[in-house]
Amino acid sequence: MNFIKRAILSMKKRIGTSLILMAVFLIVTNLVLGGFAIQNASQKAADSARKKLGADVTLGLDFDKLVKQARETGEMPIVPDLNIKEAEQLAKSQYVKDYNYITGTLGISDGLKLVGASEGEGGGAGRAAMAGVAGGSGSAIEIDMNSSFNIEGVRKALLQESFKNGKSKIIDGKPITEKMEDQNVALMEKRLAEQNKIKVGDKVKIQSGDKKKTLEVEIIGIYETEEQGIIQNPPPMMDPANKLYMPHSTLKKLEADEGNMSSIQVVYFLNDPLDIDAFKKEAKQSDIDFKYFKLDAHDSLYKQMIGPIENISSTSQMIIYIVSIAGAIILGLIIMLSIKARRKEMGILLSIGEEKWKLMAQFMVEVVCIAILAFALSLATGAKVSQFIGDSLLSSEIATASEEENPQNSGAVMVSGPGGTLQNETEDPIDEIDVSITGADLGKMGGIGLAIAILATLLPALSILRLNPKQILLKDE
């Protein structure tokens, strides 16, 4: 009688022990499979979050560092200008498909009536003082809220976020392109153009914020925007209807001598959101001074979105380790008790000349057969168990994150926008996870299950089979 046939007969005879082993194996395989499936789903969710946030990386001033330094030293540090040559060299990276310069400053209308401006308040009312930001002297310039407006300098207008997301669109004329460098041209919003009876081809005069410079620009395009001010009933200066777009190089002609209010940013549009980390690594090798500048790929929002996902990924990895170790120990104990109960059988077989390796092989066949049955069952139950575990862990993490969230922030992330302005952005954490089982998951789970089966069988069997038949039979008495 060969050892394989004996193994099959033994499993039938000891049906209770076989069922217990199969139940333990089924629990282990389901939990391990769930752990691998959740890790894969977490990675897919993280990739999806990256794609949702887009494949753009912004190079600009690191205002958090600057504010921290200012608090420590008591004065705003003098920031060097962004190395444009280095920024353009970085734009030639294999990961970049296009790029855009964005900078902002304040202009003063010269003969224009701004949308929302109060009657008879062209120059005196609604004034405010604003101090210079990093790079300036720290002196303040006086701002007339009724005659001042924002000007945004760009390399390509259609790459600006408002035009990309469809909130703004050109309705007459043409947009600003990279070929218009240093040209005195501008885009004007439809409401401002209608209020001042301006059409494409007309020229308007704009003064710098300190009124020391005047620039005449040609309106080459009229755009319409659905953007809303960050506050209700904003003053003209903050009304999106009063924003002009110019080539970024032209805007430099309007920078105030005191309290420089502009800070250039470069937005790199990558071929794939998954290239972001590689692009950042490449950028660190450039001569750009990252003591003052930073590359931001919506990192704060990304962390906000995938925070719960990362937590359940680490939890699922811990589950794999704990279940694998605990499963091996439990199975080892059960198999050890089973083998000890079969000392007489082993002693007799060894006495009649059966080889020890065949007895080892018999035990191995028994356990592997049971493991295979449990593995087959887990194919039917694994997906549902994995999804249940994933949903439970994720809902728990989201609930914990909600409790820890600062009510004053309400999930908001403040990011620096063009010209160093603060923009309030929010993104909800990922609250759904699609757990699916792949062939790779099954392969890894099968490998772990087989390793557990072999270890759980070999160690107890060796502890007994190292004895000779007489010793085994005497221990059984």
Automatic annotation (TrEMBL):
It comes from Lysinibacillus xylanilyticus. Residues 161-285 form the MacB-like periplasmic core domain. The keyword Transmembrane applies. Its main location: membrane. It is a multi-pass membrane protein. The keyword Chaperone does not apply. It is found in: Cell membrane. This is FtsX-like permease family protein. The chain crosses the membrane at residues 318-339, 359-380, 445-465. Pfam families: FtsX, MacB_PCD. Residues 318-469 form the ABC3 transporter permease C-terminal domain. Keywords: Cell membrane, Membrane, Transmembrane, Transmembrane helix. Residues 402-426 are annotated as: Disordered.
